[in-house]
Amino acid sequence: MSCRGGPDAWARCSVRDEKIMTRVHILGTGGTIAGQGATDTSSSYRPGSVMIQQVIDSVPGLDQLAEVTGEQFAQVSSQDMNELLWQGLANRIDELFEAEAADGIVITHGTDTAEETGYFLHLTVKSSRPVVLTGSMRPATSLSADGPLNLYNAVSVAADLEARNRGVMLAINDDLHSARDVTKSSTTDVQTFISPGAGLLGTARLGRIRYYRRPVRRHTLNSIFTAGNEGRLPRVDVLYAHAGMSPDLVRASVSLGTRGIVVAGVGNGNVPGPVVHALREAVEAGVRVVRSARVGNGDVERGVELDDDALGFVVSDQLNPQKSRVLLQLCLAHHLDSSAVQNAFYQY
Ligand code: ASP
């Protein structure tokens, strides 16, 4: 075996001049990328219908990028994703990397909650190797299906040594996002994913990859969080604020046994006065309260219109409500106190 130098030389080794291909393992979870409609122009379809091997076989040229293998991990629409599946995915990915069975992982996923699964994995996977989610807005059977090129680009990133140490990513519609920052912004447009504030990690177009930055917040190997045993994440509810919001929902959530509440607040994470009182009662009852925002962009800051120190609230910094819920669940699972939870929102 002969190898050229450099820290990643193993990937450029050759055995009797044969190139060793990078191994990319694809975990299929369903979604529209595996969706099937009655015809190629039908507007209705069933997500999670086509098996992952069929999805892989529909993409020409993957074998030029990497040695690709597939596994049907789940077959759901991503609105049916849950914590059990998140934990199972994180544990499976760690297992594959520990067994040296893959150099990079791609996860095909529905677009609706890809940002939540991605952020959970970003916080819990214990490897510097690339983990790349992808999906599509049009089903596999559609005219101009976007899934095949998205999968091609995702595999190219997962096979790239330069993709290491960038945490979990989403490769879609030629863009490369950090799982921490990305969010779905349009219900139907193919160009639906954006990373408000932070911007793209890079681009990946027909195998040509450009990186613009690395995530600076903690993730993967630098994260204290572990996925844990399946099914053991504490309950956290997200409550959507609006003019005239009733405090009853806060009290209902507490009486149903929630351990945490994330409010999707108006503006800078605000809620009406009666809701502030109910949230304070929740804190006194041992429930962690995080103020996030329904706005979709910008920070939620401590102590602007509310005295968060006196009220015992945590602010979400830049995390949207659904990602705040993921981080708060992990904080609760790891028994962090209120100030440690606030620090986690500043650090992750
Ligand atoms: N509802 C689908 C899902 O998230 C939508 C999609 O994949 O684009 O599974």
Task: Give structural attributes.
alpha/beta, Rossmann fold, four-stranded parallel sheet, 10 helices, 28% helix, 22% strand, disordered N terminus, binds aspartic acid
Report what the structure shows.
The chain has about 350 residues and is of the alpha/beta class. The protein has two domains: about 1-220, Rossmann fold (3-Layer(aba) Sandwich), CATH 3.40.50.1170; about 235-345, Rossmann fold (3-Layer(aba) Sandwich). The protein is built from ten helices and 18 strands. It has helices spanning about 50-55, 60-65, 85-100, 115-125, 145-160, 250-255, 275-285, 310, 320-335, 340-345; strands at about 15, 20, 25-30, 35, 45, 65-75, 105-110, 130-135, 170, 175-180, 185, 195, 200-205, 210, 235-240, 260-265, 290-295, 315. The strands form five sheets. The chain has an eight-stranded mixed beta sheet with strand order 6-3-7-8-9-10-13-14. Strands 15-16-17-18 form a four-stranded parallel beta sheet, sandwiched between helices. Helix 3 (about 85-100) crosses helix 4 and helix 4 packs parallel to helix 9. The chain is globular, with a radius of gyration of 21 Å. The two termini are about 40 Å apart. The structure holds aspartic acid. Aspartic acid (ASP) binds near residues 32, 78, 110, 111 and 137.
